[in-house]
Design a protein that fits this description.
There is one protein chain. By secondary structure, the protein is an alpha+beta fold. It is 38% helix and 11% strand. It contains four helices and two strands, in the order ααββαα. The protein has a two-stranded antiparallel sheet. A hairpin with a 2-residue loop joins strand 1 (48-52) and strand 2. The chain is elongated and about 50 Å long. The relative contact order is 0.10.
Length: 97
């Protein structure tokens, strides 16, 4: 599906998201859903593939892509506005959240 809700008003878009998900689950099949709307992608997807210029940048659950964007471009696309420059001066190999 290529941007199937792009020409609908906001209320109808939300209603149609639910209907598309219901039909998708009832049919038990995979669907590729293309959108430039991150809210729509997060609401509709079980897995998200973020692409830039035809190259896959990150694949993951909506929660993973939103909470842990792999690249700055993905973070900006997902709505992150407070991006601070930094430099790693030491790493111990442990992951700290």
């Amino acid at each position: 599906m290529d941007e199937p809700l792009s020409n609908l008003d906001a209320k109808l878009r939300i209603e149609m998201r639910s209907e598309i998900r219901r039909i998708h689950r009832a049919q038990g099949c995979s669907t590729v859903y293309v959108t430039h709307d991150q809210d729509e992608a997060l609401a509709m997807a079980d897995r998200v593939v973020v692409m830039k210029l035809g190259v896959v940048q990150q694949i993951g659950t909506p929660q993973d892509v939103f909470a842990r964007p792999a690249k700055l471009d993905i973070a900006r696309f997902m709505g992150y506005r407070n991006v601070l420059p930094g430099k790693v001066v030491q790493a111990d190999g442990a992951r700290h959240c």
